[in-house]
């Protein structure tokens, strides 16, 4: 209660400066909210332009020429996970590179079959067969080329090499695609490979032979950022709260009695010197009015007496012999007590 009374007393004493301060601050907040709302900010953003993507890949296909219960004669198999030499002895590789359409693009495609004999990590034999090597300029967005190999003959050749090495080391076969390109804005290269496995009667590419590259240019531009509702809404809310505080201060000043607040504060501060009680009026006593409760408490301390508080008539008094020192917030209570 003492803290609340002190706050009310401060507000009552400083009401005018506080109202002016809060009103000005609230006005600035509302003006700031309006400025933020009607003045969007701009920011610099980075943007990728002239984006061009080049993609290269190799697909496979084979026509069924051998007798099989798996497939029909003449059937074309495409991009299968495994092929079989007796059924499809010939395999076709389809190299294709997709480039940006609507412009002249120069593309070179080189497809090679590499055979490497290794013992441990060291090679002892290496050969390269060029399956495709062409350079073309296109404007329709795609370059494609096909080359077929006889896998049956390749298998026999590898078996012969294994026999000649008498089982020392092993032979690894891989398919490698190398692509170079030049567009109207960019140039570069792609390189990808995958093992070509021949195991018994089966053969297959052990992985995808594919690669891609995306080019772009980074530019910066100014964009307008919409006003943030949290910013102008927060400022407006603070402004309204400050104006509301002005109303609270005005109302507090109107209903608060500074002298009553001071009395209550003094009562709380000197509570150990004040006792509740009641006292009658005696004509032979001398009654001395004290201006403030704090002064009355000082009298009690000086005379080593206690302050008596009668809540019924709201009067404080110190009785010292024939002298009664008293303090009352209102003359009406004191006059009623003294029968005046």
Number of strands: 16
Strand content: 35-45%
Counting H and I runs of at least 4 residues, what is the number of helices? Answer: 7
Question: What name is given to the CATH topology of the largest domain?
Answer: Immunoglobulin-like
**CATH superfamily caption of the largest domain:** Immunoglobulins
| Fraction of residues in H or I helices | 25-40%
Describe, in plain words, how this protein is organized in 3D:
The protein is built from seven helices and 16 strands. α1 (2-13) runs antiparallel to α5. It has helices spanning 2-13, 15-38, 151-165, 229-255, 258-269, 293-302, 331-337, and strands spanning 41-63, 76-78, 83-84, 90-98, 105-119, 122-138, 142-150, 170-182, 187-199, 202-205, 210-225, 274-276, 286-289, 307-310, 315-320, 323-328. It has a six-stranded antiparallel sheet with strand order 3-10-9-8-5-6, covered by helices on one side. A hairpin with a 4-residue loop joins β8 and β9 (187-199). The protein has 340 residues and is of the alpha+beta class. It folds into three domains: 7-40 and 226-256; 49-220, Immunoglobulins (Immunoglobulin-like), CATH 2.60.40.10; 257-340, no CATH class.
């Amino acid at each position: 209660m003492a803290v609340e009374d002190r706050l009310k007393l401060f507000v009552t004493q400083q009401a005018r400066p506080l109202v002016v301060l809060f009103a000005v601050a609230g006005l600035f907040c509302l003006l700031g909210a309006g400025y933020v709302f009607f003045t969007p900010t701009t920011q610099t953003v980075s943007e990728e332009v002239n984006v061009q993507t080049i993609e290269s890949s190799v697909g496979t296909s084979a026509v069924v020429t051998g007798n099989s219960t798996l497939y029909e004669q003449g059937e074309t198999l495409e991009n299968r996970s495994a092929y079989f030499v007796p059924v499809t002895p010939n395999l076709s590789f389809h190299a294709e590179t997709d480039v940006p359409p609507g412009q002249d693009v120069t593309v070179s495609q080189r497809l090679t079959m590499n055979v490497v004999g290794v013992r441990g990590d060291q090679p002892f034999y290496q050969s390269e067969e060029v399956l495709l090597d062409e350079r073309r300029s296109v404007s329709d967005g795609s370059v494609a080329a096909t080359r077929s190999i006889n896998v049956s003959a390749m298998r026999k050749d590898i078996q012969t090499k294994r026999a000649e090495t008498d089982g020392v080391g092993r032979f690894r076969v891989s398919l490698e695609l190398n692509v170079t390109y030049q567009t109207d804005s960019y140039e570069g290269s792609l390189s990808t490979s995958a093992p070509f496995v021949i195991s018994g009667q089966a053969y297959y590419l052990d992985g995808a032979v594919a690669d891609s590259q995306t080019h772009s240019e980074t530019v910066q531009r100014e964009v307008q950022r919409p006003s943030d509702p949290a910013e102008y809404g927060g400022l407006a809310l603070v402004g309204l709260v400050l104006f509301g505080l002005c109303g609270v201060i005005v109302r507090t000043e109107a209903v608060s009695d500074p002298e009553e607040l001071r009395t209550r504060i003094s009562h709380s501060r000197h509570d150990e010197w004040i006792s509740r009680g009641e006292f009658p009026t005696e004509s032979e006593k001398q009654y001395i009015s004290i201006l403030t409760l704090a002064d009355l408490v000082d009298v009690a301390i000086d005379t080593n007496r206690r302050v008596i508080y009668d809540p019924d008539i709201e009067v404080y008094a110190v009785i010292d012999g024939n002298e009664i020192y008293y303090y009352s917030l209102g003359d009406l209570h004191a006059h009623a007590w003294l029968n005046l």
